[in-house]
Amino acid sequence: MEIEKIKKQFKKDLESIKDIEKIRIRYLGKKGEIAWAFKQLKSFSLTAKKKIGPELNNLKREIEDLLEKRLKGRSNQQQFSPLYKSLPGKKPEIGHLHITTQAIREIVNVFKPLGFNRVRYNEVEWDYFAFESLNMPKEHPARDEWETFFIQDLSNPKKGKAVITPHTSSGQVREMLKGELPIRMLNLSRCGRREININHIPSFYQFEGLVIDKGINITHLRGLLDYFAQNFFGPGRKTRIRPFHFKFTEPSFEIDINCDLCLGKGCRFCKSGWVELGGAGMVHPNVLKFGKIDPCKYTGFAFGWGVERTYMMKSGTKINDIRHLFSNDFRFLEQF
Ligand code: DAH
Asked: What mean pLDDT is predicted for residues 316-325?
């Protein structure tokens, strides 16, 4: 009788067959290998029976033991499976508004109580509203400042080429042409320019204020700038106006705020201690005329700043590169 052969085969099966019940039936079942061997033993001589009988019994016990061990091993594994019902679950992450959206909302909230009407003009604009109606005729060199994207194959004989709106000032004449006076407009829209560096991104937001009424003068503009600086940037922040030149305002200014990163000492970001927020001025009579408003009866002021840059100058944000805002890096975004 080939007891060794059965033993070898059993060990092979134990390694290769996963279903333990199947192995048990094959070896220990009524018609299994062991039962069959015992049947054969009947026809053996008495001395052979005495020798082989106990060997067969030992093999049977050995098989039973090994199968039992295997079964226990499995149930142990199940017992320590990684399902710990009392462990706290993973919470789904909750997002929040992007820093630019937060800035937009905060800016609108500063101007709303003063009666400003929030509008949003086109992101693709006609050359006419972006430049010509702002006192910058075709081919005028002043246009160069705006690093404009022109849209090919899209032009209108009266309104010129289409452009990606380079500044929110393009909403000024559109607002005037609505024909409703007085005007208190806050145009907050997306703009585009061909510039990318620590201070500039090609797609950004600007907000533009326009106030037109009888008797509006520079003191109203100064008062509004102070109001905004105190309500948006917080106490201790200073603004200053510098004489400048824009074709659509007369006189024109640039408005600076002391840098939040170095508080006016001068750093990699601001260089001089002051950061330019944007431009402002008294609306040029020619622009009023383009808007069908009589400059002898009405005057007004306007200002236009970048939303992202304004937010960066807010106390405590400490953002040293405007490009972080569009990097989609959670390590940055989660801080705000
Ligand atoms: N539109 C100008 C720019 O993007 C900023 C500006 C200057 C807006 C003077 C104004 C203004 O309303 O009066 O650089």
From this structure: 85
Helices then strands, counting H and E runs in the chain, come out as 11, 10
Q: d(Cα 236, Cα 285) in Å, to the nearest integer?
A: 36
Measured CA to CA in angstroms, residue 178 lies from 141, 189, 294 at distances of 30, 18, 14
CA distance 34 to 39: 9
Which tokens go with 305?
Answer: 């700043």
Residue 117 has pLDDT above 70, yes or no: yes
- Ligand 1 pocket (Cβ < 6 Å) reads 167, 169, 208, 246, 249, 278-281, 302-304
Give residue 66 CA to ligand 1 midpoint distance, Å: 87
Cα–Cα distance measured from residue 221 to residue 80, given in angstroms and rounded to the nearest whole number:
73
Q: How far is CA 219 from the centre of its chain?
A: 40
Burial 2-26, CB ≥16 within 10 A → b, else e: eeeebbeebeeebeeeeeeeebbeb
pLDDT tens sequence across 205-235: 999 999 999 999 999 998 998 889 889 887 7
Domains and CATH numbers, the chain: 3-79 (no CATH), 99-333 (3.30.930.10)
Question: Which helix H or strand E contains 280, and what residues bound it?
Answer: strand 274-283
Rounded Cα distance between 100 and 165, Å, is 18
Please count the residues of the chain: 336
Q: Which of 167, 200, 299 to mutate to test the pocket of ligand 1 (most atoms within 8 A of CB)?
A: 167
Please check the confidence at residue 314 and state whether its pLDDT lies above 70.
yes
Q: How far is the CA of 279 from the centre of ligand 1 (A)?
A: 4
DSSP SS3 for 186? strand
Sign of CA dihedral 39, 41, 46, 51: negative
